[in-house]
């Protein structure tokens, strides 16, 4: 059907602005216009943006309307089902379509006047270029990077986005975003018996004769044959570590063509399309799959509550295979994909090139390629929370692994969505099935399951011969009384660490605080190192010799004496992972100790490197924060130590008990993942705390019943819905007056549902004073809808008042 004579489009621009904007479509573009394509528009006086067509209309009430400048796509890049999800998110999370567009689209699809482009290549010879394209690339040889505005200026053209898009499609330009992720892709070396020896028995025996005079070579070859009876690939580092050999011995065997070697990018498994590992589903796993399918006949969502090490991944693999065989797409959601190296490698073995990763750690070029692959019906995507925005055509299954994890919640910037909850809406739009998987489900999900909203499948035993670890709690007060403390470790924990190291086992030490020490204080005048921009202490990072704010990132040198009284009386209080690493290095000097936190493992490459070395056994003790709790599986970990567990329990948040139970249970689950019984030692002052008792007894149901009763009594989720409104301003009085005005207005309609106003937990953030209120709403869709409409109206009214336009108003639906 041709477009009407009067043609207008409603477009979304990638800015934090409400609603869509109307533009006229000149006659020459009318046959090209489709919903879901991008058009170039002028927004404001001179800024250019690639805007997204949401709707085509034949009439408008607007008087003065600008024309679109150009059409940038031939086919829609956003589908109707994506727009349906976006509309739900704007209504539910009280955010704008522009904010969702910013979060959803790859950078290459969001060209604007401020976009920076860099040359992908330098050599311009033998390229078929237009004059304008040549000028851009020639300028980039001199300038190295250009903004779209720069290109407009030197070409003396207003419309240049189409030229830039053409150069990007031909891989002559790249967007500056994510450049770090494109460099230095980690490689892994793999070793296996040479294929010629595998085929020819006579050559194999000749090879054995060739090496038998050399004891070291014979030892390495025999160790390989013992490890890999099927002659399959093994990582070089793992083979050398397990056989206690060195690279020169291996080099000799490679020269003699006894071993073959292959170097591949991290996550790529050799012969993944051919050497698919075989696993036998246990009877318990087979029963769980049948239960899931039965529940799916009348419910679309199932909660799979399987204890740590119960083999949930095998169940996922089986259901993924069946869904793909039906010609449908699968989305496998993970809370933080950079920490799931092992899982990616494992799934690559089963699905090879069918598995694509989508998350912030991959290059923008790859993000764009995966977006287009999804549009073309690619079968399996594994991704972090942003992958819910991909343009699926026929989604059949969504797996939400570790569904309880708080990383599914986007905190800043808007949209402040929870990917788990949004994925349920996405599944509804596609008539897809959902599995929520966790050993420690969120209270909301478990509540929905026991109330028959979701199907509930439980696996209460570990896969194979593995058993749940033995958990011991050590009272720190008593240990100190009897002089059984050394540094921050009880003697019992140190003795257990030594015993496991002697047995060539590995140890994980968990401390949920990074840095060396959280407080620097003067003993003379009580001066403390605090951030000038934020209301928190500066953390001491001894390795880099800096004080650092973990909110705004500001760094300062560590002073040698007190800046206030100039006395040499500064003292470091408290301890973090850096301090623990230092203590362990002194206590166990013959063993390799490594930290695994945001400072030591900031990039995906460094994270992968540390985990690979730990898996190979070259690191004996791994010290880390909650990054250690996310889906890691190491066969030689026999002991997990948890330091000062009380701190996790005392956080000022209604979810503190739930998070503590989940965190302690998950980190405990890293121990004893094979036949041998693992051990967990938790150091705490209040050893009688009910959460610690529940963790010791592996008793989720007891914890759930007690916590649910508390939530019902004090009116917290899942019995109510919470909306947090935070107001920030550089002047404290302005923020205070605005929050008081908003509270007064809201109370007229919502009454006692409003809590506050009060200072935020961190009362000053990046130079802005922060005030907040909480709104508790009954689980009544009419009340919630009316409240949300009122909130949006009042927040806009406040922003429009004189003197308040510079206020930052943050609306967070379902916070925490």
Summarize the structure.
The protein is α/β, with parallel strands linked by helices and 816 residues long. It contains 27 helices and 35 strands.
How does this structure look, described?
The protein is globular and about 90 Å long. The strands form 9 sheets. A 7-stranded parallel beta sheet has the order 14-15-13-16-17-12-18, sandwiched between helices. Helix 1 (about 80-95) crosses helix 16 (about 420-430), helix 12 (about 285-295) packs across helix 13 and helix 23 packs parallel to helix 24. About 40% of the residues are buried. The protein is about 35% helix and about 20% strand. The chain is built from 27 helices and 35 strands. Residues about 175-185 have low confidence and may be disordered. It starts with 7 loop residues before the first strand and ends with a strand. The protein is an alpha/beta fold and about 800 residues long.
Detail the topology: elements first, then pairings.
Blueprint: E1 8-12, E2 21-24, E3 38-43, E4 47-57, E5 70-71, H1 80-93, H2 97-104, E6 116-119, H3 131-143, E7 146-147, H4 148-155, H5 161-169, E8 173-175, H6 179-182, E9 187-193, H7 195-199, H8 201-211, H9 215-227, E10 234-235, H10 236-243, H11 247-255, E11 259-265, H12 283-296, E12 301-306, H13 312-325, E13 329-333, H14 341-351, E14 355-358, H15 364-375, E15 380-383, E16 395-401, H16 419-430, E17 433-438, H17 443-450, E18 455-459, E19 470-475, H18 476-481, E20 485-486, E21 489-490, H19 491-502, E22 506-510, E23 519-522, E24 539-541, E25 546-548, E26 555-557, E27 570-573, H20 577-587, E28 593-596, H21 604-616, E29 621-624, E30 637-642, H22 646-649, H23 656-668, E31 679-684, H24 690-696, H25 700-714, E32 720-729, H26 732-750, E33 754-765, E34 768-778, H27 781-800, E35 808-813
Parallel strand pairs: 12-17, 12-18, 13-15, 13-16, 14-15, 16-17, 19-31, 22-29, 22-30, 28-29, 30-31
Antiparallel strand pairs: 1-2, 1-4, 3-4, 3-5, 6-7, 6-8, 9-10, 9-11, 20-21, 23-27, 24-25, 25-26, 32-34, 32-35, 33-34
Helix pairs in contact: 1-16, 9-10, 9-11, 12-13, 23-24, 26-27
């Amino acid at each position: 059907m041709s477009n009407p004579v009067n043609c207008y489009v409603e477009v979304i621009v990638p800015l934090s602005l409400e609603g869509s904007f109307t533009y006229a479509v000149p006659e020459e573009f009318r046959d090209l216009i489709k919903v879901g394509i991008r058009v170039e528009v002028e927004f404001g006086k001179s800024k250019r943006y690639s805007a997204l067509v949401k709707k085509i209309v034949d009439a408008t009430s607007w008087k003065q309307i600008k024309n679109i400048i150009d059409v940038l796509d031939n086919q829609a890049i956003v589908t109707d089902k994506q727009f349906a999800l976006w509309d739900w998110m704007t209504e539910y999370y009280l955010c704008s379509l522009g904010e969702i567009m910013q979060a959803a689209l790859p950078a290459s699809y969001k060209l604007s006047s401020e976009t920076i482009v860099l040359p992908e290549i330098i050599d311009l010879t033998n390229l078929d270029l237009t004059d304008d394209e040549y000028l851009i690339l020639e300028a980039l040889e001199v300038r190295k990077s250009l903004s779209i505005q720069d290109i407009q200026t030197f070409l003396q053209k207003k419309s240049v986005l189409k030229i830039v898009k053409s150069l990007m499609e031909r891989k002559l330009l790249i967007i500056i975003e994510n450049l770090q992720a494109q460099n230095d892709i980690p490689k892994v070396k793999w070793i296996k018996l040479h294929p010629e020896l595998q085929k020819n028995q006579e050559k194999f025996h000749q090879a054995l004769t060739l090496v038998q005079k050399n004891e070291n070579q014979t030892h390495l070859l025999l160790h390989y044959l013992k490890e890999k009876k099927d002659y399959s690939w093994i990582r070089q580092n793992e083979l050398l570590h397990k056989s206690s050999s060195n690279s020169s011995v291996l080099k000799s065997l490679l020269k003699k063509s006894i071993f073959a070697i292959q170097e591949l990018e991290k996550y790529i498994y050799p012969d993944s399309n051919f050497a698919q590992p075989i696993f036998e589903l246990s009877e318990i796993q087979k029963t769980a799959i049948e239960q899931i399918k039965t529940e799916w006949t009348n419910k679309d969502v199932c909660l799979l509550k399987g204890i740590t090490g119960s083999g949930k991944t095998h169940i996922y693999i089986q259901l993924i295979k069946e869904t793909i065989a039906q010609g449908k797409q699968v989305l496998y959601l993970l809370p933080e994909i950079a920490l799931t190296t092992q899982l990616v490698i494992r799934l690559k073995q089963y699905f090879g090139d069918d598995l694509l990763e989508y998350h912030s750690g991959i290059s923008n070029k790859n993000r764009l390629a995966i977006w287009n692959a999804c549009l073309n019906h690619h079968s399996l995507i594994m991704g972090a929370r942003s992958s819910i925005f991909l343009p699926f055509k026929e989604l059949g299954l969504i797996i939400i692994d570790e569904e309880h994890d708080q990383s599914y919640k986007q905190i800043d910037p808007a949209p402040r969505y929870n990917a788990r909850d949004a994925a349920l809406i996405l599944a509804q739009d596609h008539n897809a099935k959902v599995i929520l998987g966790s050993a420690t489900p969120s209270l909301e999900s478990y509540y929905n399951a026991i109330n028959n909203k979701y199907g509930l499948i439980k696996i209460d035993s570990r896969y194979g011969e593995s058993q749940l670890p033995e958990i011991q709690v050590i009272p720190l007060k008593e240990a100190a009384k009897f002089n059984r403390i050394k540094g921050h470790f009880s003697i019992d924990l140190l003795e257990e660490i030594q015993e496991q190291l002697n047995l060539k086992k590995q140890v994980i030490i968990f401390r949920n605080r990074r840095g060396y020490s959280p407080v620097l204080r003067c003993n003379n005048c009580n001066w403390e190192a605090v951030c000038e921009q934020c209301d928190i202490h500066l953390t001491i990072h001894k390795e880099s010799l800096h004080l650092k704010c973990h909110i705004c990132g500001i760094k300062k040198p560590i002073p040698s004496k007190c800046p206030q009284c100039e006395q040499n009386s500064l003292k470091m209080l408290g301890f973090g992972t850096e301090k623990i690493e230092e203590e362990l290095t002194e206590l166990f000097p013959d063993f390799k100790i490594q930290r695994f936190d945001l400072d030591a493992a900031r990039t995906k490459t460094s994270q992968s490197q540390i985990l690979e070395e730990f898996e190979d056994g070259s690191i004996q003790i791994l010290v880390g924060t909650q990054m250690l709790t996310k889906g890691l599986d190491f066969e030689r970990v026999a002991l997990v130590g948890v330091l000062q567990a009380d701190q996790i329990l005392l956080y000022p948040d209604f979810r503190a008990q739930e998070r503590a139970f989940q965190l302690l249970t998950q980190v405990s689950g890293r121990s004893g993942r094979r036949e041998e019984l693992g051990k967990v030692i938790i150091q705490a002052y209040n050893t009688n705390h009910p959460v610690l008792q529940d963790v010791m007894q592996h008793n989720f149901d007891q914890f759930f019943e007690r916590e649910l009763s508390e939530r019902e009594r004090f009116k917290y989720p899942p019995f109510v819905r919470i909306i947090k409104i935070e107001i920030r301003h550089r002047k404290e009085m302005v923020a205070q007056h605005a929050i008081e005005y908003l509270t007064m207005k809201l109370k007229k309609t919502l009454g006692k549902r409003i809590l506050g106003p009060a200072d935020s937990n961190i009362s000053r953030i990046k130079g802005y004073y922060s005030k907040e209120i909480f709104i508790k709403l009954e689980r009544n869709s009419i009340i919630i809808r009316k409240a949300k409409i009122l909130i949006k109206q009042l927040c806009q009214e406040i922003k429009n008042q004189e003197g308040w336009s510079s206020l930052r108003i943050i609306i967070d639906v379902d916070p925490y």
